[in-house]
Amino acid sequence: MQLKKQFDEILEPLGHDAANFFLAASLYHAHKISFSSAASLANLSFDAFLFRLEEHFGKGFILNDDTVLEDMKTADDLMTGSS
After folding, report:
1. What is the 3-state secondary structure (H, E, C) of 10-79?
2. 53-58, long-range: CB within 8 Å, 24+ apart, which pairs?
């Protein structure tokens, strides 16, 4: 993929693989890929990707209402022994 020259000037101070990080972060924020997939695409560990998200976007994980409700139901099912 060839980036416009202007991107080089903006991304260069942000370090090696900055374009990969921001593309992966954008796909994660758009709910197109999982957190772990985004970290892998960015060539970062789970913790390093989380740190960079917090550094550049002010938050790491993105939780939507459906995911939280589903997790709460799963936890409730596990506590009550339901399936």
Report:
1. HHHHHCCCHHHHHHHHHHHHCCCCCHHHHHHHCCCCHHHHHHHHHHHHCCCCCCCHHHHHHHHHHHHHHH
2. 53/25, 53/28, 56/22, 56/25, 57/25, 57/29
Residue ranges of the domains in the chain?
Answer: 18-80
Q: Measured on CA atoms in the order 4, 46, 44, 37, is the torsion positive or negative?
A: negative
The pLDDT score that the predictor gives to residue 67 is: 64
Q: Are 54 and 60 in contact, with CB atoms under 8 Å apart? A: yes
Q: What is the pTM of this model?
A: 0.67
Per-residue pLDDT of 33-47, as tens digits, reads 888 899 999 999 999
CA distance 33 to 81: 31
